[in-house]
Structures are given as structure tokens and as C-alpha cells.
Amino acid sequence: MSAAAGTQTGSGSSEPTAGAPGSPATVLSNLQTAGGNWRSFAQVGPTYADCSAPCPSASWEEIYGVAYPSLSGNATMFDLDPKVPYADALFTAGLIGQNSPQIPDSDHTLLPTLHNFTYDAWFYVVTPEVTQALEFDISLEMSGVAGMTFGHQCNLRGDGDWDIWNNAAKQWISMGVPCNPAPGWNHVTLQMQRQADNSLLYESIALNGTTYTLNYESESTAAPEGWWGLAANYQMDSDAKGSPNTTYLDDFSVTYW
Fold first, then answer.
1. How much is the pTM?
2. Contact (CB, 8 A) for 38 and 91
3. Of 33, 83, 158, 159, which is most buried, counting CB atoms within 10 Å of its CB?
4. 3-class secondary-structure state, position 42
């Protein structure tokens, strides 16, 4: 496996499209493709700071345009080869603002109007028995206003439940609802909201057609100076043995309004 991230073998589009007639929503589709503006890093405790390739703690890569396994014929493979236990690979797609050539929001007028977000994707785990966790996030940073990460973690090797990231406490909180991916492809849909006071509302998690209502609130934090943007994140966490792992994403979209 290559230590360099971002191997391109296919193409796709993440251009925005309007929602259904009468709906104010904008849908960014096919985010799993090369058009998703992906960047990637390793993260290792205790600080879990981003480590760019080449990184001594892990190597990783994305391969785009995968026809099998795939639902659309245009899936992306995410590969993680840890060098230490519990090493993570973070894959982040810039949607608006920084790291997004499609929607730069250079005048800083779009992000303050957005309050509702839907993260929708299909994922395939090759070896769930060595996958510590999978993370599905939306990150929003508005310099001088607020910063927030809507973090959702499928804790496969822990308690087997969904965890939610509490931004103020900087810790994962178990929601007590199961995350038991089926063999093959799994469909996850996450609903979340930035409330009027910039607090986070985790509304619901749906996995393979079963919806769990959360309505869990978390305070936001201060955004780093100069940071402005919206990103979708996908993260793979290795187990205590640092076992290699491969997963796939397909039909990945983010909707906002």
C-alpha cells in the first residue's frame, strides 16, 4: 500500500444542485469521488494531531473510481495500514470555504445562513472484526463566530453503540443505540442542526432503515482565527493490534439549508 494519499483512478462531480421543487436545500452529491476535494492525515493519541504523509504512525490511501464493490460503479476505497495501535486515518472533503474551489464563500455570507445538514452515505467494511471505529462528521468553522464538529462514531470494537462528540467537553458520549453494520453495503443518514445560538443539535441517526432519534445538544467552541469553511469527514480507527483495514464509500452526499 502506498504511503501517499489521493491516488486517482476515476473522476466525479461534487457540484451543488438544488433540492426538490419548493425546497431551499442544496445537495452536494458524489462526494466519494475525486471531485470531493479530499485531503487526508494520520492521527495518533494522545494528542491526535494531524500528521501528513509520509507519517511514521500510519500509511493510507484513497483509490477512486472503484467498480467493485460498488453501488454506482464509482465508489472510493479507503485503505489504512497502521504502524502503531489505535492509529487513525482522517479523510476530509472541503465543501464550502477553505479547501473548496467550487464554493469558496470568500465574502463569508453563505455559512452564517446555514443551519441544517444531512450526511448520507453508503459504506462497506471489509474486516469489521479489526475495525475499532468509523467516524462520520460535519465540521463547520466560522472565524470570530464559532466552531463545531458534528461527530458521529460507530464504535464497533467498544460498546457497539453510536457515540456523539461533545464539543465543549471534548469527549465521546455513548447514545446507547446500536451500530451493527451488516455484511456488505450499509446506508447511514445523519441529521444535525446548528441552532440560533450556535449550539449543536444532533437530531437523528439512521442505519439501514432504522432511525434513532437523539435530540442531543452540545455547545460549540471558538473557531481558530482565520478558519472559515464547511467540511465532511470520514475516519477509520485501527484496533489495539494496529490491524490494516479497508473500507469503501459510495453515493455520498451532504445536503444543507
1. 0.91
2. yes
3. 33
4. strand
Longest alpha-carbon distance in the chain: 51
Neighbouring-strand partners of residue 153: 135, 163
Mean pLDDT of 195-216: 98
> Cα separation of 211 and 189, whole Å?
9
Mean pLDDT of 5-29: 58
Q: At residue 23, does pLDDT exceed 80? A: no
The residues near 69 (Cβ < 8 Å, ≥ 6 apart) are: 75, 124, 184, 185, 248
Distances (CA, A) of 221 to 90, 93, 150, 227, 229: 21, 21, 12, 13, 15
Yes or no: say if 242 and 227 are a contact pair by the CB < 8 Å rule. no
For residues 48-72, give the mean pLDDT: 92
Show the domains of the chain with their CATH numbers.
Answer: 16-38+88-256 (2.60.120)
Per DSSP, what are the bridge partners of residue 58?
Answer: 55, 82
Copy the grid coordinates of residue 133.
Answer: 471505529
176 pLDDT higher than 80 = yes
Q: Does residue 96 contact residue 73 with C-beta atoms inside 8 Å?
A: no
Q: Which three cell numbers stand for residue 172?
A: 465521546
Determine the Cα–Cα distance for residues 36 and 40; give it in Å rounded to an integer: 12
Q: What is the mean pLDDT of residues 184-205?
A: 98
Are 48 and 88 spatial neighbours (Cβ–Cβ below 8 Å)? yes
Residue 24 C-alpha cell reads as 431551499
Decide if 251 contacts 71 (C-beta within 8 A).
yes
Tell me the HSE value of 149 on the side-chain side, using a 13 A CA sphere.
20
The owner of cell 464493490 is 69
Query: Hunting for cell 486517482 — which residue is that?
Result: 8
